[in-house]
Design a protein that fits this description.
By secondary structure, the chain is mostly helical. Helices cover 74% and strands 0% of the residues.
Length: 398
């Protein structure tokens, strides 16, 4: 069933399943607004991560960043897949989406405290607000979609139980924090697998691919914003532009190359069933997190060049090269299957990843990484031209 959307919304519509083959399905203005609000939390997490790295707290910073980013990513992802199947754009739907946005802003407010001081109180409540709004959405869907009622109820019950766990975790001894976090994360990611096995919801492959692509764009844009702020700070402190020119050029080349590599893939063709959707959807945790971390790493290198921070040259370089390598690796893996790796062209990405990591040990790692990333883009274009006459990059570079 196709939904007609009024710019003012409707008072209420039955939350029936949308058609997976619906033509011209694209992101709504509400979804775009949702993404822009969520990127506020991404920015706060990235800024706190940058602070921890600059202070030399690499292990603590990476662990805290991974935990905080999970809350952001998981809440965003669950809304995205639900909206693909049940977006009614009526008043209750819009209001519940607004509640999730408020929760995201609470998460943003608590990101620094959680990452730097391991105080997850604020971020937990923000996360629970977002997730309880989703419980209500799933109950609405269960009422209106009898064919998938069992699946919707599994979502609602599963999400609700795990939220009780997150709140209870706040009262547990601090020593239990990491172990209970891991258990609850496993419970969260198990809920969709359990629920979808009852009856698969009607998410739209092209809509999902577009939504993930849009969020990747926004995160990469935030990366550029963070890097620009770092450069501006350096210039305000009377750092000569020539001293950071290689960082600026290398950073811009890298981010542009990451954008190119991501959008040269034909994502909808991977979303053909539950297993592929789970792998593709879950794998984007590392894609989004590494994309945001690139900006933090670039800012750390700018600060390091101007004499700030407590990292060695190699450690500072690794804050940039490692997330770039992770991004390239995950984008490549998410769009390939083992049985597709048949020729030497399939080694281009793995070799490029190893080369990027090796740039950690040379004098100008950011510029070298940018040049390598640009060379990887060029190599994929050559492969595409040879395979398909240069007419369809997304099909030739699978």
């Amino acid at each position: 069933m196709s939904q007609s959307h009024s710019p003012f919304g409707a008072w209420i519509r039955p939350m029936t399943a949308r058609n997976t083959g619906e033509a011209h399905r694209s992101a709504t203005m509400l979804e775009l607004f949702f993404d822009l609000c969520f990127v506020t939390a991404v920015a706060q997490a990235s800024a706190a991560f940058e602070h921890e790295l600059a202070e030399g707290h690499i292990g603590h910073g990476v662990l805290g960043y991974a935990m905080v980013f999970f809350a952001i990513w998981w809440a965003w992802m669950n809304f995205t897949w639900f909206a693909s199947a049940y977006d009614t754009d009526d008043v209750p739907y819009r209001l519940l989406t607004l509640v999730q946005i408020v929760g995201a802003l609470v998460v943003a407010a608590g990101a620094a405290e959680a990452l730097q001081h391991e105080d997850f109180t604020v971020i937990t409540w923000g996360y629970v607000i977002m997730r309880l709004a989703m419980v209500t959405q799933w109950l609405r869907a269960a009422r209106s979609d009898p064919e998938r009622r069992r699946s919707c109820l599994r979502y609602a019950v599963g999400v609700l139980i795990v939220q009780v766990g997150w709140v209870a975790r706040l009262a547990l001894p601090e020593d239990w924090g990491l172990a209970t976090f891991a258990v609850l994360v496993l419970a969260e990611i198990a809920v969709p697998v359990w629920a979808e096995n009852a009856a698969m919801t009607t998410w739209h492959p092209h809509h999902i691919a577009e939504r993930y692509g849009l969020f990747t764009l926004i995160v990469l844009g935030e990366t550029m914003t963070a890097a620009t702020a770092a450069v501006r700070t350096a210039l305000d402190e009377e750092t000569a532009l020539g001293d950071i020119a290689t960082l600026v050029v290398g950073g811009v080349l890298t981010v542009f190359a990451l954008w190119w590599l991501y959008f040269s893939q034909n994502a909808p063709r991977k979303l053909t069933g539950l297993r592929s959707a789970i792998l593709w959807g879950y794998g984007h945790y590392a894609v989004f997190a590494s994309a945001a971390a690139v900006g933090a790493g670039l800012a750390v290198n700018v600060a390091h060049t101007t004499g700030h921070g407590h990292l060695s040259d190699r450690a500072a370089a690794a804050t940039f090269t490692v997330p770039v390598a992770i991004f390239i690796t995950l984008v490549w893996l998410l769009h390939h299957r083992a049985d597709e790796l048949r020729s030497r062209n399939d080694l281009i990405h793995p070799v490029a990843v190893l080369a990027v990591l090796a740039m950690t040990f040379i004098p100008v790692p950011v510029l070298a990484t940018g040049l390598l990333a640009a060379a990887l883009v060029a190599a994929t274009l050559v492969v595409a031209a040879r395979a398909g006459g240069g007419t369809d990059l997304s099909e030739a570079v699978k």
